[in-house]
Amino acid sequence: MVSIPGWIDHQTHLDALTDVLTDAPLIGLDTEFVRVSTFHPKPGLIQIAVDEDAYLIDPL
Question: Nearest CA to 50 among 13, 18, 9?
Fold first, then answer.
């Protein structure tokens, strides 16, 4: 079964995710960057997987 990713766009959600990540034995990480009007990339999306759960972090 595929879980629906948790959307992290508030500090309180990020704090709760930090607690989950602290206890996780293994973490999957993927990043996406935005390069629209600059040579320097800006983080656009951070994707994290822990056990059977997935999280999407909006850094913008």
Answer: 18
| Domain limits for position 28 | 6-57
- The 3-state DSSP class for residue 13 equals helix
Give the CA angle between residues 42, 31, 43 to the nearest 5°.
15
Residue 39 pLDDT class (50, 70, 90 cuts): confident
Q: How many domains does the chain have?
A: 1
Residues 6+ positions from 27 with CB-CB distance below 8 Å: 21, 48, 49, 50
What tokens appear for 3 in the block?
């879980």
pLDDT of 30 strictly over 90: yes
